[in-house]
Amino acid sequence: MKLRANQYLCDLPVYQPGRPIEEVARELGLDASRIIKLASNENPHGPSPRAIEVMKNVVPGVHRYPDGTSFHLRKAVARKHGLDPEQIVFGNGSNELIELVGHAFLKPGDEMIISQYAFAIYEIVGRLFQAKIVEVPAKNYGHDFERMLDAVGPSTRVMFVANPNNPTGTVSSAERLQELILAVPEHVLLVVDEAYQDFLEKPLDSAALIRPGQKKPGRDNLLILRTFSKAHGLAGLRIGYGLARPPVAAALERVRQPFNANAVAQAAAEAALNDNAHIRKTFILNAEGRARLEEGLHRLGFDFVPSFGNFVLLNVGGGQAVFDCLLRRGVIVRPMGGYKLPGFIRVSVGTAAENERFIAELSKLNPPSMQKKKNT
Ligand SMILES: *Cc1c(COP(=O)(O)O)cnc(C)c1O
Q: What number is the average pLDDT over the span 118-142?
């Protein structure tokens, strides 16, 4: 073939999303209504009910292009975080913002610092922009901030930190995170990904470090990422946002497509943003469900990483084999081979019934590759 795609694409890792219920039903000849998906850390209790209501009103108007500035949503997000409207950038999911960081801040050969077991998209985007990926070994499956700071050099342009982290569920305390934010040198853009913020008891108000008029030393090199895909229950709409000082926000604004946040998503996100009843309910049910899952895993003798998110990472001995077995039984989880954790699977916290079903199916499995630890 004469036509060739860019050479560096050949060894770009491919993101493996959670398998959709319909696809698994089709492929394995299963009844879709009997399949449960605990693979993508979605909200098992559905979208914010307020979002569902406003979407009905917006749908008849979708023959028009959306508001490219997301005026109303922007105002609402600014108010929520105590920021100016020009400090906010919207994305087609916060994943798009990760890519915009590449467009605006990375050139071939620049260094990008991530932790071992970081969210896969960071490395994929870094490699897409031909950055040099500096992967810092994890400490107890979590980020090792000291070593990440030590890794900063003159060519470092971007550092990513997810808190809590996906896929490990680990978290750093608000104090430790703030220390890191204040310590990262100003020539490095620090991206703090807060996708799972709403599942934390006492999260850091990181936006305080970029708030206009605040007394603490401000951070011109901080970008905070938030999403509506997790606690707000709007993963299918694809909407997230970034918060930064105006120069960083303006750079990201320049590289985005004009209509990257669609009209339905803008309206739904605005309604969901302050639906505190739904967020609170999700927080409580998640904490209960996660505790039940972890109890069940402990009872069955599995090693798992104690989680601060809406998912649990567990060692099953052979992640792919256990994933396949569970899939045939209608339970979709995530194998972790792509994260260089071939022995592990990640399971999202579902409804109480889904969590029970997962534990019940897991207890029935015994593939040869699965080395169950003795329960002591
Ligand atoms: C789920 C997730 C996101 C959110 O992605 P969206 O594109 O907003 O759906 C971002 N970062 C991490 C670490 C996640 O796990």
A: 97
